[in-house]
Please model this.
Amino acid sequence: MPGRERRKAKRFKYSTEAKFLLRGDCESVGRVLDVSEGGIALFTDAEAAEGDEIVVYPEGLGRLQGKVVRTFKGGVGIAFSHTDAQRKTIRKKITQALQGKPYMRLAELRSGVRKKYNLETVVSIDGSPQSIPCTIIDMSESGCLVKCEARPPVGAGVKLGMLKGRVSRFDDQGFAIEFQGGGTVAETAEDNAEPQAKAQQG
Model:
């Protein structure tokens, strides 16, 4: 039944780059062929098999999770494992992306523009005992951009101050983090600003 429901969802042609994490440890890139609220088709050279877990980050659509349900020459078909409520959000994201407007979540609409910071701090990566020095460049209620020499894989879980999130993309200076709750931007900014103020006073 779920398979039939996904096939009923209208598919849209949407040509854009997409990074993805296959089987939890294989990071690769591809290009979107088409997408719906229930699944996505990608052109990619990565070797995948039916049943493989996959997390996809298409430009403009955010983080999409599911399983490979078919393979074809030069690509894969993916069925999402999201709830009905999440699928409604995906539908809105697709509509906005096709209009050339990035979809903004409620938190992003409330926060408005991203705030500029220049805070030296550290980021912790899941599975690693070490904290990595970095600098927060800008931050909103939904995520932030950090300047950092390290390049954790896309999809890796990270912790920045009181905030938890995942690496969503890379940048020339470092990488972007998409927050997933567990703190507020204000708390994180204050936590990092206080040590700097003490250091300057000392």
Q: What stands out?
A: The chain has four helices and 13 strands.
